[in-house]
Amino acid sequence: MTLDPTKNPDWKIAQDAESRMKTVETLAAEMGLESSELLPYGHYMGKIEQQAVLERLAGRPDGKYVDVTAITPTPLGEGKSTTTIGLVQGLARRGLRSSAAIRQPSGGPTMGMKGSAAGGGLSQCIPLTPYSLNFTGDIHAVGAAHNLAMTALTARMQHERNYDDATLARLSGMRRLNVDPTRVGTGWVMDFCAQALRNVIIGIEGDGRRNDGFMMRSHFDITVASEVMSILSVARDLGDLRERMGRMVLALDRDGNPVTTADLEVAGAMTAWLVEAVKPNLIQTIEGQPVLVHTGPFGNIALGQSSVIADRVGLKLSDVHVTESGFAAEMGYEKFWNLKCRYSGLTPDAAVIVATVRALKSHGGAPQPRPGRPLPEAYTREDVGLVEAGCVNLLHHIGIVRRSGVPSVVCINKFHTDSPAEIAAIRRICEAAGARVAVSEHWKKGGEGALELADAVMDACNSGKRHFTPLYDWNLPLTERITCIAREIYGADGVDFEPLAAQRLKALQERPDVNELGVCMVKTQYSLSDDASRKGVPASWRLHVRDVLLFGGAGLVCPVSGDISLMPGTGSHPSFRNIDVDVNTGRVTGLF
Amino acid sequence: MTLDPTKNPDWKIAQDAESRMKTVETLAAEMGLESSELLPYGHYMGKIEQQAVLERLAGRPDGKYVDVTAITPTPLGEGKSTTTIGLVQGLARRGLRSSAAIRQPSGGPTMGMKGSAAGGGLSQCIPLTPYSLNFTGDIHAVGAAHNLAMTALTARMQHERNYDDATLARLSGMRRLNVDPTRVGTGWVMDFCAQALRNVIIGIEGDGRRNDGFMMRSHFDITVASEVMSILSVARDLGDLRERMGRMVLALDRDGNPVTTADLEVAGAMTAWLVEAVKPNLIQTIEGQPVLVHTGPFGNIALGQSSVIADRVGLKLSDVHVTESGFAAEMGYEKFWNLKCRYSGLTPDAAVIVATVRALKSHGGAPQPRPGRPLPEAYTREDVGLVEAGCVNLLHHIGIVRRSGVPSVVCINKFHTDSPAEIAAIRRICEAAGARVAVSEHWKKGGEGALELADAVMDACNSGKRHFTPLYDWNLPLTERITCIAREIYGADGVDFEPLAAQRLKALQERPDVNELGVCMVKTQYSLSDDASRKGVPASWRLHVRDVLLFGGAGLVCPVSGDISLMPGTGSHPSFRNIDVDVNTGRVTGLF
């Protein structure tokens, strides 16, 4: 018997389910892995030797490939991971071999406002605590690789300042890189929401000292926004990862040429930290299906996709493999469609768009809910009018998926407080627009509550209506590609580039590999526009691009819009206050 | 057949031995662990459920307890870890069940100048690569716990600046802590030698922004120097760890009162990150004996001991358990003797003092060798006079161990370049001073080369001459305890306290728990004095204490002497340049 999710927090449900979970060896054997292809990490987690699996099963056809995306969320989240897990559980109840690919949660949101990201209610993955905290160390390894590069760069700048060319050559056998301290684009990383590290000055010398670094402005981003994480998302294998690791551009030299990790001779050592991280992780749903966990979140400020490697493995081992892309369709699904699928060569059979009555009410005009505060009254009483008004946002996201040529299913992720009339209104509006709709109670009932969703997804997969088409031609200039995304996907009237952004785009456009660089937008997830406060489908606005980052290793140009930061902040009511450990059992309490 | 260490780098020897190593399950079973007491991490590493082991074996008598320390080293290291592993291998060849406890290497030295810290030649532990890099994630977890505390502190300072008391209470239900920004003693951590982060300014606000932290000076230390690491070293169990985690003092408030992790309500969440890290790790020597790995290095700027927990477990499972303390006897052994043994309640049966011809020549007046540079000529030709002159340093360390009442063995860690006359000179001088001496060729010959050492250690253990006595009474004032260490152990004429240090000691002396706080010295490891350039046994000098840190959770007062920094630097010839990955096998090359 599982616990009642209306009466128990997620972590209690997880601990209860963990008392019955399979060992990772059993889980791996059931999904068809050979014992040599599993690296156990404790009794219930493991890593998959993906190279061996992909070579052994090269001739096996892939299963169906389903992406889960969502409407524009509230800060409380609309249950995209919960729906991914619920769908996999529902598919299993229909006798299908199903698997999920999700991303490892970042310590920032886990300690800051989310508590966890393992799904919720009766659609969770377990073991909850290790998954939510250190897990198998992948995010830590990404942070180490990234900060090693910055250690190499900043030490080099100090040595080049302190020594003349002859001394440098004698000491280290290296040529002068001549890094321009005003054009060091890359900062350091830390996987917490440490806003105090957003803007820093580093390398402050003590009196008469010359070995305390090079004084300059710098910054910290959250680790999961690191380019190294994006590389882990898109790399096809360890060889591809090694090559990409050397192409990261950390700065420009005084002539404006890129200074890369290869120039610093640090790319091999960075890769050494990632040898285990390149292997996807394996855990299970509370109903026992395999969940591959790989790479990190943040579809708003990074690629934010579960990895190409995890999907390739999942597709070989399952009838249906369900992957997740970050935040709403205009962010996560657009990147899945135009970036990840190009890197992987895979194309989805269907996409699920998760909607909630709560988010629709927020788009219909209800006051915005905030984490850790009581819900405004509009969310706790029936209000069909608010829901109907908010459906414009949902219809916009349906249109985005349709534009990609992929059959979609709207999943109404039902809360036990939603009224039948509210649910009926959403169904009516979506069906009038020609969309496939499923009401799903996986949060409350697990896989049994997701049967309608599972059936609708299989219907979409088997509909024969797939005409997967990229949004734009990569041979178009960068500005045109950005403008295409802004107009056709976000619904903007156009794009304004600040002088800094325009200048950087102009320089990037001159790179010989510009047509191999993808456009990875950095934008708030809380609105279709670049202003988080604008709900529904904002009209009469222009996208404001204030900066452009180059992720040379991941092969991405990242236009930064609005005032979004790559280092989120910790609010005044952080979730770490609720977290503790039962020292007799070692169990962590308070993750929710 | 093992490879010849005179012709192969350490990482090649390790890879060769790894092709024959036992699985961690076999290793654990052979040492008497039950299968439920092992958490495998891949096929060759694991964690030990120490609480279960200690409860099951509570009635079993402990094995013999041996600490390995050294003379004052050169920057190349004198093979303390190598000797620890070699001794365990030698003891096994004598039919004894032996185990080692060593510390996980820090990414800083591994990437900066050491390459690895797994021993060397035919006395190494394996698997080398994971041990040398992420391992099972303990150092990462320590860094996460530490930086979470700093995230909590700095976010709180921002919120307290931005809101009045009423708003604060409404938003977060918390009282005002009133942190004094000029008295935030704790910095952030990162596990690389990033000298550019030694002195930083954080929390720089954008124009008109109030949510980018609180602007102030701050600093980064290397993660292994974190108080959290010291707590992991001394904690007896998870309950003890949880309590200590709340007693960390991060800052003072405007009235001079300590602001702790408990005040920030973050100690439970910090502990949550450490639930797995509290379990010691298990790997093997290249000859198959168990090696427990727990906590980090840096006996010069931290406690630098393998953990109390690892030693308690090792002593229950072995006839002889060999533990290691950081750097030379005046640093690592003094802390083992007067701090770790008090925390653990354990007392050693013998201590090994590792000496090399190389280090003795450096104390005898040879020019100092430097990592990554050719050895000066004095080290590559026979020079008995230099060796004899350098023995003053060795005799001083023998005296330190004698002072503790523990029988000692001088281990001459023989290099294949040492001449018989040089070795004979050391033996003669030590034996004239009444010391037990063993020449050991474990680097070249593995356990077979360590039989003389193993026999000498067992002779010391069984000599019946143990009168273990603490150096000082903890009821003495802090300044007297520091002066006692400086005079009796370092050979200083006295101690000069800078005004800041004197003022902090005065405040600490007024704490009601002052007699429960240990003195943990921070000093260079390259000299008995606080000046790294002074070799041999410096005379006519006074210890210069410029600052004093309080590690309230670990229960330590740390006087900082000389210009030693808690964030080492990366030099102009870093080892990361040599490290790479064979992408076909996933093997890391270039760790040495």
Automatic annotation (TrEMBL), chains A, B:
It is an enzyme of class 6 (ligase). One of its GO terms (biological process) is tetrahydrofolate interconversion. InterPro entries: Formate_THF_ligase, Formate_THF_ligase_CS, P-loop_NTPase. Its EC number is 6.3.4.3. This is Formate--tetrahydrofolate ligase. Pfam families: FTHFS (PF01268). ATP binds at residues 74-81. Keywords: ATP-binding, Ligase, Nucleotide-binding, One-carbon metabolism. Belongs to the formate--tetrahydrofolate ligase family. The keyword Ligase applies. One of its GO terms (molecular function) is ATP binding. Pathway: One-carbon metabolism; tetrahydrofolate interconversion.
